[in-house]
Design goal:
With about 350 residues, the chain is of the alpha+beta class. Helix content is about 30%, strand content about 20%. It is built from eight helices and 13 strands. The strands form two sheets. Strands 2-1-3-4-5-6-7-8 form an eight-stranded mixed β-sheet, with helices on both faces. It has a five-stranded mixed β-sheet with strand order 10-9-11-13-12, with helices on both faces. Strand 5 and strand 6 form a beta hairpin. The protein starts with 7 loop residues before the first helix and ends with a helix. Bound molecules: 2,5-anhydro-1,6-di-O-phosphono-D-glucitol and manganese (II) ion (2 copies).
Length: about 350
Amino acid sequence: MAEEIITIERHILEMQRGHPTATGVFTNLLYDIALAAKVIARETTRAGLVEILGLAGKMNVQGEAQMKLDVFANQVMIRMNSYTGRLCVMASEEEPEIITIPEGYPTGPYVLVFDPLDGSSNIDVNVSIGTIFGIYRRVSAGGPGTVEDCLQPGNRLVAAGYVIYGASTMMVYSTGQGVHGFTLDPGVGEFLLSHPNIRIPERPKYFSTNLGYQRYWSPGVVEYTRWLQGMGDEPVSSLSLRYIGSLVADFHRNLLDGGVFYYPADTRDPKTPHGKLRLLYEAAPLAFIARNAGGYASDGRQPIEDIVPTSLHQRTPLFIGSRDLVEKAEVFIGRYDQ
Ligand code: AHG
Ligand code: MN
Ligand code: MN
């Protein structure tokens, strides 16, 4: 029996049927993000060709200013969502302040936060990169959205997801009813359901972290890392180390195969004692995904989803993936760190 072919649009529509009160605004917002992902995906496959096709430098053959992929991805996300009347405000890793809806255009009930291109240091070496997004309901009464609409904890997310531009382009999202993965068929330009109901496997395979920074970690994190490698005094199934330096790619591997990714606080720079990753548009959306796939995400002491942001670009330590491995990090930090 041929397997049913389900596009992401149909899947989102079917998810909406689970919410009789849904007005379709939320459904259309997810469509828009899927469309933005297709536009960005097309550009990522050309990234390496920029020099060859003479698109380099300031002006490309179409007379447009040639832009870096993360600037391009940021503009696609903003333009795709500014005029639809579905959002009241946006926040992006690439924008210092909130992104308001342009004058004369309607505002809507939702808030979009996103990292338009994650892992940008990997673009030039052809390693997988991604886009991360989270969707909140607005908290302000009406009119233009405010920064308070963006500074909501992860446990207020109504949906979150990511796109991974790798060997194939995949979009993974959750609205709280399971986590579902779609693979882009570039031939027809559709995301087709390829990974329904993703659950993090019971038995983890990997741990992902940048051991190059181990000398900056707290004693608890150093002991945790020894434990993961089977060098501690407690037994653990031996795990393989896999680290690609693209959060989306590292997270996706641990979601599908089981494991833990962590980017801990480091003592190197008093300005960023909380590590490198950002709470609002990296840690919290992925924490929502991890939990809906049976996993967990912590800052080493508390659930990521419980942290109420106080600024758009605030950073947080992140331990995310298989629940028991993440909880073990909290045990070591609780035991060894003040
Ligand atoms: P971004 O490209 O959006 O700034 O994110 C990069 C992040 C994340 O993708 C990855 O996990 C981390 O940087 C890697 O950092 P290190 O190179 O310090 O390990
Ligand atoms: Mn990022
Ligand atoms: Mn980024």
